[in-house]
Input
Amino acid sequence: MQASALMVLAHASDPYDVADIQGMRIRNLSSGNQGRQAADLCIDVAAELGVRLPRHPGKMRVLTEVARAVMPQARLDLGRYADLPAAIDPRIHVAVQLMAQSAPAAYFAEPNLFPVLAASATRLSLKHGLNPYPPYSFATLALALCGGLRLIEQGYRFGELAITTAERYGGTHQSKAKFAVDTFVRHWKEPLDQVIDHLLDSWLRNREAGDQEDATYCAGVVLYADFLSGRHVDTTGRHPELIDYLRRTEMPHVKDCFLAWGQMLHLMGKPELPPELSGDDFDYPSKIAAFRQIENCVQIAISSIAAGVLDHLAGRYQRAEDRFALAAENEIHIIAQVLVLVLVPGLAFFQALNAYWLAEQDPAQAARMRRIALRQTLRLKFWKRSGPANLAHRLALLKGGRLAAKGRHGRAVMDLHECCALAGPQAPLYA
Output
C-alpha cells in the first residue's frame, strides 16, 4: 500500500489530494503496528505545510500548546464557534486535516504528541475557520483535558462543541467525532448505562460507514464499560455481535486487549474462576510478552486491568496488584493518559479495593497497600465531583474497606449498605 501511495503522490498536485493520501499512509502504518513510522511521517508532512510539531514533546510543551488553545476561550461560551465560517486558506485546511488524521497514530506511538495535535488543530480552526476535520480535533482535545489534565468541565465543553459542529458535516466526520466523545468524554459526567447506549450507537454508525478502526474501539469499550456499570457479567451473551466483530477486525494494534475483556467476561460465567486469563480468544502470558516487545502501552494496560480484575475476584490479591501496577505504570508516564477511558476510574477503584484485601492477607505489606488505597481513593474523590452517578457507590465501598481495616466493623457494614443504596437497582457485582 505504501508503495502505491508514493506513486500516486508523485503525480498529485492538489493539496487536498496530497493530504488525503498522506493521511491514508499514516493510518495504514498505525493500524499495522508501525506507530513510530506513522508519527515520523506526520511530523515530516506537517513541516512541509509550515506547521512545526515536536517529535517527542515533553510535559511543558504539552501544557503550553493546550494553554494556547484553551485559555483564550476560558470565559467564553464555546457554542459561539459552532457557526464559524469555513476555512479559506487551503494550507490551514490541509494542516488541520493532517493533524486530525494523525491523532490515532500518536495515541499509540507518541502519546504526548496526541494532545499537541489536538490543541494545535483546535487553535488553528477557532482562529481561521472550520472544515470537516476540526470536530474530531475538538473531541480529542476534550479527551486530553478530561483525562491527563484533569480539566473535566472544560473538556466536556469541547466535547459538546465537537458534537455540535460535527452535525454540520454528517457522514464519517460526524461518526468519528461522536465516537471520540462517546468513548473518552461522556463517562466523566454521564451515567455509564447511558454512555453504553451511545457507544453501541457509535459502533453501528462507524461499522456502517466502513470505519473499521473506530468501530473496533467502540466495540471494545462497550465490553468493559458494561462490566464497570454493574450489569450482569453476561455482556458477551447479550452482545455476541461485538465479540464476533472483534475477532474478525483487522486492527492488530488494539483488538487483542479488547478480546482480553471478552475472555475475562466469558471465564466469569464458569462455575469456578480459572487460574489465569487464558482461553480461545486471549492468553494473557503470551500476549503480554508480545505487547511489551512492541511497546504497545495501550494493549499492556487494558489487558492487564482485565487480568488483574479476574485475579482480584479469584482472591489472588498479590498477582492482581502486580497487574494493576503494570497498568498504572503505563498510565502515569503519559500526560495524555492513553487510558482516558472509563477504565481510568475503574483501575483506581479496583487497585484500591484490592489493596485493602492484600493488606489484610499480608500484614508485611499493610502500610504500603493502605497508601496505595488512599492515593487511588483521593483520585476517585476528585473525579466524583463531575460524575457522582458512577463513583459515589464505589467510594462508599472503599470507605467501608478502610473502616474494616481499622477494626470499625459496624461502621463498615453501614457503608456497605450505603454503597448498595447509591448503586441503585443495578447494584454492581463488587458491591
